[in-house]
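Dock adenosine-5'-triphosphate; give full complex structure.
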Amino acid sequence: MKKKTYRMQRGIFSFSIIIISLIFWLFFNKYYPLFVERITIIQLPTVESNIFLALAGSVTCCLLICWGIRNKCWKGLSFAISYYSITKRVRRQIKDARFEDEREFDNRLVRLPKIKIVFDDNRIRTTGKVLIQNSINFDKKLEDMRIDAALKGFVSERQYLSQDRNWYVYEFYSIGAQKQLEIKSAKTLIEWSNKTSDDYALRLDERATVPFHHMGLVGQTGSGKSFFIQMLVEQVLSKNVNHELFIIDPKRTDVYQMAKCTIGSDRTADKTNSINLIKQFHDRMKKRQNELQEYFKSNRNKTYKDAGLPALFMLIDEFGALRESWKTLAKKERDKVDSILSDVAFMGRQLGCILWVATQQMNAQTMPTAIREQLVLKIALGDSDEQTYRTLFSSGVDVPPVLFVAGQGIYSYPGLAGTDKPRLLTVPYCSFLN
Ligand SMILES: Nc1ncnc2c1ncn2[C@@H]1O[C@H](COP(=O)(O)OP(=O)(O)OP(=O)(O)O)[C@@H](O)[C@H]1O
């Protein structure tokens, strides 16, 4: 026999009282007076039928009040209905997974752990968290539970134990939330970005805003890579701090043209002068290192940002193809460039010399490990091959089974999404770049 929860039992009890009261009310209101009239042998007492109506009404009111409190009705009826339907499905899933306390294993009734739903935005309710109270008995089961089945219309992204270890947290987003935002002008883009970012951060999509950091970006042709890069460049140039960009696009595609227009030819390079620009960037980093030496001595654990300096970005598009083209160079020269880039990747973050590397595919040959390991922000747009995913993120990466269109993909960043379970990214479509 299927087990019931204590809440179900209370519900059945309350509804039984309501139904029985209504039957009594109907009986005493309609039929009982007829009996009183017809049976004259004995004097039947008069019964106030409205007592039963009042009882049914009071129990209904109590049920409604409890429902309203439990589902936070003060946040609006549609909120309460969403809250109720998600909680109900999660409770059913937990019940069917037999989460009951060991002591209750043989009982017909089970006590389920407490469940809370927190939406990131109470009005649109497209993303949020399901929190399930942890107890020593549930720990392992909660860890293994796939909550997706219970969250119809939603996808669960990552799950973890809260810091106080009292709750198991499942982040989820609605499938409908993956609709791409269209941004029609540079001004709108900046306004959108400024809502969540500061002068040293970038907004990637509706949900993700990250501080400036080294970035590894992969995406096949048509994945929206160039649009994404241009969106980031627009944001960097709009900041109140005068950040500087150095851009290399070996194939002279859209990014090259955009860079020439926005930052000028001095800091833009194609295949031919790429190494010079990399060396120039490295020299700037060395200079900055000397400048900041004294500052760092007296200010421990501080960065260029605390010293009030702008960031310097080195963006290398089509890195795989560029490195391939260096094959004709002497080995010494190639090693020198690799060591410069590794130095930037290793030292640059604290000094504000940020490396952005974009490529179509990533493997041990296209990207030296010393550089790859420092690319803290990892983004893959569109569909990539398995080796690329594993090289960029981690060997055990769990790529969500989603068919990505241009501008969609996955990312990882410490604190937001781990390399084993990257999060979905939906870059807004900046139609003004067309
Ligand atoms: N965020 C986005 N949302 C929707 N569509 C997009 C987005 N970004 C780009 N696109 C569409 O995808 C097409 C290809 O984008 P983009 O040129 O950025 O790709 P790419 O990966 O750089 O390809 P290529 O290497 O050929 O330049 C664009 O013409 C654009 O219409």
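Observed: The two ends are 63 Å apart (CA to CA).
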